[in-house]
Specification:
InterPro entries: 6-PGluconate_DH-like_C_sf (IPR008927), 6PGD_dom2 (IPR013328), G3P_DH_NAD-dep (IPR006168), G3P_DH_NAD-dep_C (IPR006109), G3P_DH_NAD-dep_N (IPR011128), NAD(P)-bd_dom_sf (IPR036291). Helices cover 51% and strands 12% of the residues. It is of the alpha/beta class.
Length: 346
């Protein structure tokens, strides 16, 4: 079997994962549409737009030809922004072979359809969703590329696919756990970006640690509530993809979502924030999707709802926080559907 691995899209996270793979496999090819970026990676072994000052492994090669990147690969790792995922998967379908392992590490939804990324990929490749693996967990690209100790989770409806992905990535710096709850892992990875936006906004407003701790805690309850309604195991949200990724994304200056939220809290509007970031802020699109998902499933998501009003309806961030604090009194422990709770506690 070939030892080649292909990684599609050379953003910060795609580049960082490619560097992990290059420590494990002799041939790793990173695909980018940008010829200048390809030249920089191949000649200088850097990707300074996305990972300034990071030195990439010399056996990591780049190409702007997707067919060349994928040809002969035993695995393909897709790290496209959520808004580009369907097109990237569609382009991949011309080169993908059924014996190739497919992993995605994108945290978001297709906002037009509210579909998870694994569903989008499976539709475009014409395969069962159980063939797709999702990777998630607390993992800043800036630290991964420097080989800082990192732990993530890979999930698939098919156990053998998850184990294969674990074997592909696992090394002394990058520890990988498996999980069968693909729905929960995908939902946790996507929805925590909303709470990270809120945490950044709280910090930008100067509200302190008490407010941020409350946002993270109630945000996790919100994520779990909608996740269980959509078929996820509630225990997934207390794991790496849930609370682990939430803490990393909502408390670190590496986090684009936290930085974007902080700028919103300081009074900048959404267009100003996105222009200054220069990179995708997945939490913005995810907030839009979550607003529609909460209506579809009839589940309250008050934090996501207030962020939706800030991002898309020009609500003042301070007014949004006041609205959250002024909600009717609640009990802390949420009530789940009894049959769903019993399903996971037999």
């Amino acid at each position: 079997m070939s030892n080649k691995v292909a990684v599609l899209v050379a953003g910060s996270w795609g580049t960082a994962l490619a560097s992990v793979l290059a420590a494990n496999h002799p041939e790793v090819v990173l695909w980018s549409r940008n010829p200048d970026q390809v030249k920089e990676i191949n000649e200088q072994h850097t990707n300074n737009r996305y990972l300034p000052d990071a030195q990439l492994p010399v056996n990591l090669k780049a190409t702007s030809d997707m067919g060349e990147a994928v040809s002969g690969a035993k695995a393909v790792v897709i790290v496209a922004p959520s808004k580009a995922m369907r097109q990237v998967a569609r382009d991949l379908s011309a080169h993908w072979q059924k014996d190739m392992l497919v992993i995605h590490a994108t945290k978001g939804f297709e906002t037009e359809t509210l579909k998870r990324m694994s569903t989008v990929i499976a539709e475009e490749l014409g395969c069962e969703e159980g063939r797709i693996v999702v990777m998630s967990g607390p993992s800043h690209a800036e630290e991964v590329v420097k080989r800082c100790p990192t732990t993530v989770v890979v999930a698939s409806l098919t156990e053998s696919e998850a184990v294969a992905a674990q074997d592909l990535f696992m090394n002394s710096d990058f520890r990988v756990y498996t999980n069968r709850d693909m729905v929960g892992v995908e939902l946790a990875g996507a929805l925590k970006n909303i709470i990270a936006l809120g945490a950044g906004m709280s910090d930008g407003l100067g509200f302190g640690d008490n407010a941020k701790a409350a946002l993270l805690t109630r945000g996790l309850a919100e994520i779990t509530r909608i996740g269980v309604e959509m078929g996820a195991n509630p225990l997934t949200f207390s794991g790496l993809a849930g609370v682990g990724d939430l803490v990393a994304t909502a408390t670190s200056r590496h986090s684009r979502n936290w930085r974007a939220g902080s700028m919103l809290g300081q009074g900048k509007n959404l267009d100003e924030v996105l222009d200054s970031m220069g990179m995708v802020v997945e939490g913005v699109r995810t907030t839009q999707a979550a607003h529609d998902i909460s209506k579809k499933y009839g589940v309250q998501m008050p934090i996501a709802d207030q962020l939706y009003h800030v991002l898309f309806l020009n609500r003042n961030p301070r007014i949004a926080v006041e609205a959250l604090m002024g909600r009717d009194p609640k009990t802390e422990m949420e009530t789940m559907k009894l049959e769903t709770w019993e399903q996971w506690h037999r």
